[in-house]
Amino acid sequence: MMTLHSFPEKEAQKDWPPKVLWGTCLVIMVLTFALDVHLPLGIASAVPYILAVLIAAFLRATPVLFGVALASSFLTVLGMVYSPGPAQILSWHVLSNRGLAIFSIWIVAVIMDHRNSLEAKKEAAQARVRILEGLLAICANCKKIRDDSNVWHQLESYIVTHSEASFTHG
Questions:
Q1: What pLDDT, in 10s, does the model give residues 17-30?
Q2: Alpha-carbon dihedral of residues 43, 32, 67, 97, nearest 10 degrees?
Q3: How many domains does the chain have?
Q4: Staple partner for 52: which of 22, 28, 67, 169, CB 3.0–4.6 Å?
Q5: pLDDT tens for each residue of 98-122
Q6: Are 36 and 9 in contact (CB under 8 A)?
């Protein structure tokens, strides 16, 4: 049950190993390129590269994400060059299909990078909330805090020891 102050634990989420994600990206890119060079020009066969970009986003590394987008863009252009059919068929249809595929690849990469950034900020905020959620037993008279071992500590020393806070008495 989730309450207002509770969040699902990180351990409950399934994270794929980086090698699996890398391998999946590579397989998708190779298969898409192979399909692309065997289909005639005019078919938007470069669009599946977007799936590789989406999977790369789960590695949560901006350089990797943009590297996969760059490689996908390069393979999209290369696929256009090596697709079967006469070279003079490079019409506006072919160029617009490839342009839209590259545009889509980069839009997805930028959106996923922004999503990863927001996710990192959310996780940092959740960590801070977990720190702030703890209840402290404090004596109103002597201003001491009791720890888990039932030992009383001075307020300032306890907070400095157990958090990133510091005190100034001015």
A1: 889 999 999 999 99
A2: 0
A3: 2
A4: 28
A5: 999 999 999 999 999 999 999 999 9
A6: no
